[in-house]
Amino acid sequence: MILCITEKPSVAADIARIIGAGVRRDGYYEGGDYCVTWTYGHLCTLKEPADYSPYWKSWTLAYLPMIPPRFGIKVIPQQSIERQFHVIESLIAKASEIINCGDAGQEGELIQRWVMQKAGCRIPVKRLWISSLTDDAIREGFRNLRPEADLKSLYEAGLCRAIGDWILGINATRLYTLKYGRRPQILSVGRVQTPTLALVVRRQQEIENFVPKDTWELKTKYRQVTFSATSKGFDAQPKAQKALDAIIGKPFTITDCQKKRGTEAPPRLYDLTSLQVDCNKKLGIGVDDSLKIIQSLYEKKVSTYPRVDTTYLTDDIYPKCGPILLGLQQYADLVEPLKGRSLKKTKKVFDNSKVTDHHAIIPTGQPLPSNLSELERKVFDLIARRFIAVFYPDCSFEQTTVLGSVESTKFKATGRVITNPGWKTIYAKDAPAENDDEPAAAKQDKDSDTQEMPQFTKGESGPHEPFLGKKTSQPPKLYTEGTLLKAMETAGSQVEDEDLREALKANGIGRPSTRASIIETLYKRGYIERVRKSLRPTQAGIDLIATIKVELLKSAELTGIWENRLRMIERGDYEPQEFINQLKQMITTITSEVLKDNSSIRIEANVPS
Fold first, then answer.
1. Which of 89, 106, 232, 522 has the fewest beta carbons under 10 Å from its own?
2. 97 with 148: CB under 8 angstroms?
């Protein structure tokens, strides 16, 4: 008998139907040569401290740090989980081969292997590796099952992540709770959550300590077009007024006029983080809810595997893109211009070297089921339009730059006219999305770039209306859930450029699939709070970050380096034991430093009810 183990009952039902295992039993399906069973996500977990030693059950500084000689796993002690585990255990004992049908990612690999290890599996295992749950994808996956050995490094990376979180999370939480907490409250400290909290706290402090600065810019209006002086602004109004007085009543002369043609490429396809960011910014959906919706679209077979950190597709997906587009029947008017011609293929979309486990999130081309919620339809619309847009022509524009002068003072004005909207027609009905982190001054500059320009002639001259424009520097904005996700992805760097953002992903904080839960954890611990759409640290969150003196625990950059090493383990380029040894050494150092502190600091966290 061949045993298939999936991660969810719904997936088990689909696979059982396709492979002919149509008889439902208690906890599994059977038919022909197959049985199909399932987990409920995690059935097993790392053992708790008390499972290793009775001395570790009580929270005592004297026993820190707790580092087991060898980490072990156990079945989660819940009746429904234990019952299903015993079903799997009994089926493994009868099977001749196992097909691991867990979610095709690091966490999915860890979930399934832990269950098989705990059940004492000693039989051959193959891996079903698919990027969507359509019938065709499942059939193709069964025709191309992978050897379990191919995914060994993926499992090792997941195991190192879990052990690393145990070493730092459990030890640091007990350490800081016992040293600085007010019983019975717990001060939660973690490898990812603490540097994320530090980002929010640091942003709040930047805002509170911000000192606004006024500058005055010399401007003039000539033929209804606003020109700005090319020289730097003035930090004092009297200086600016003197410069203004010097050009009043004197003619304005056009010294140069240039037109250049340019193009703007379509935005990249979605990875999980960028999709969650747009769900938050454009649809007002919280990151935890957006993850559930995106996962639901995958399980309903209308979009591909969601927990990805790449915006690229592999070359073998290219032949499938035409049929996928044709399957998007509700977007037939947008797909129509692409029919009858070869689809555009660029390195910004198709690049095998930028894809490891799974490609970017795209539609599957399956008809939308009638049971999609309104929010699910809106999120699918984001995915579908982004996919269609990458095959449209670039947006073409004409950039006009006009230079002028009043005696020795030089001025400049720019304007842009779109000559062919290209991919922007996909979003013609959308209002332009405002960048939450963009300073007001930058937005004003963008507005001036798009002003309409009349025809100018070099050498023409005439009267003008000079004036002073005052700018006041603005503090950074509070994080929203969306902008915090972006900051986690780039280890705190403020990045808008898509190419640079891609390069910084390797050192991001956490994985795409876990970032939403980290933010939710910070809410639940009472460390951050929502203020309308913005996030603020609570006093407890501020106090905790101030109390943690060990930079390793709260540095986004250093945590990003650990994440990069986990990715290297996943690729087979870094030794798992080296990663674990570093974290053991780190918690030993942190414990020693905290125990030396003789202060009487006490932190009180108001956990939300």
1. 232
2. no
Q: Of 192, 117, 200, which Cα lies nearest the Cα of 161?
A: 192
Tokens (6 digits) for 438: 């963009």
**How does residue 606 score in pLDDT terms, banded at 50, 70 and 90?**
low
3-state SS, one letter per residue, for 516-568: HHHHHHHHHCCCEEEECCEEEECHHHHHHHHHCCCHHHHCHHHHHHHHHHHHH
Let me know: does 513 contact 161? Beta carbons within 8 Å.
no
Q: What are the respective helix, strand and coil percentages of the chain, to the nearest 5? A: 45, 20, 35
User: How far lies 190's CA from each of 13, 169, 171, 395, in Å?
Assistant: 37, 4, 9, 45
Q: How many CA atoms lie within 13 A of 8 on its CB side?
A: 12
Q: How far apart are CA 111 and CA 103, in angstroms?
A: 9
Q: What are the tokens at 360? A: 């970017």
**Across the strands, what pairs with 536?**
529
The SS3 call for residue 598 is: coil
Among the options 34, 305, 392, 479, which is catalytic?
A: 305
CB-side neighbour CA atoms (13 Å) of 511: 17
The proportion of the chain whose per-residue pLDDT surpasses 70, expressed as a percent, equals 93
Q: Is the pLDDT of residue 513 over 90?
A: no
513 or 364, which is more confident: 364
Tell me whether residue 222 is one of the annotated catalytic residues.
Answer: no
With cut-offs at 50, 70 and 90, classify the pLDDT of residue 558.
confident
Closest CA to 522 of 51, 269, 197, 159: 197
